[in-house]
Amino acid sequence: MPQRLDGKAVAASVKKDLAARVERLKARGVEPGLGTILVGDDVGSRKYVAGKHRDCAEVGIRSIGVELPGDAGEDDILAAVDRLNADPACTGYIVQLPLPRGVDERRVIERIDPAKDADGMHPYNLGELVLHIDGRSAAPKPCTPRGVITLLDHYGIDLEGRDVCVVGRGITIGRTIGLMLSARNVNATVTLCHTGTRDIAAHLRTADVVVAAVGQADFVKPGDIKPGAVLVDVGVSRVYDEAEGRWRVRGDVDKACQPLASAYTPNPGGVGPMTRAMLLANVVEIAERAAGVD
What we know:
This protein has helices at 7-27, 43-59, 74-86, 105-111, 123-131, 143-154, 174-182, 200-205, 271-291, and strands spanning 3-4, 33-39, 62-68, 92-95, 163-167, 189-193, 209-212, 230-233, 237-241, 246-250, 263-264. The chain is an alpha/beta fold. It has 2 domains: 17-125 and 274-291, Rossmann fold (3-Layer(aba) Sandwich); 139-272, Rossmann fold (3-Layer(aba) Sandwich).
């Protein structure tokens, strides 16, 4: 039987450990704080940010929520970024994307203090991934790739020397996870496939591990994978279920692939909870470094 890689269970374990570390920090007079900047009333973004603040409450991290109206201009958003950069109560923070049309998201992200970049997506911190071939940079790491690697490690899935096929070149995971997987502390061999790849299925069929992140429901089919492969499903799509008359979340990997795999992440309940847990981990680690805690 294939092994189900339960992201909810592992994230709960991570948060339990973080809660203990937060208590140790508080005993030294340090209280980590996670900030969020939310612009507008997008239902999905609001729900996602609310989940982050619930996570903070679970582990004892202070929540600092900044909300701006949907018609906020770029200068207003940059001013909010500057305030959190200067706020000593804010250990790390995120700017929830997408931002309103006309706002330069790259300029906003670049304005974040790299030392407070809880998402690990500031250009400086991405550069640290490139420079540290050993994988031991102290900079905050991108949450989704870190969550994937932490989940696989928890279940004892050794990536040393294994062939990993990543499908999708988005900045959230596709372009970043390759840097983390190919660092010496993981030592996998990575193939990145995208819309310009001529025969994606051929690459998938030779991979020991597949990381699917294209946001296209059931993109990876049973005929595309090698028997015994590890399947990591990162994509999220909303698909209307005619039989049930409602929208459902579907991943990039067809569920019919699961019996052929040696291990797989459910979707939902796999990578998503790990991403949120890694955001908290980044904040706690930033606070520990500032406090000189090993």
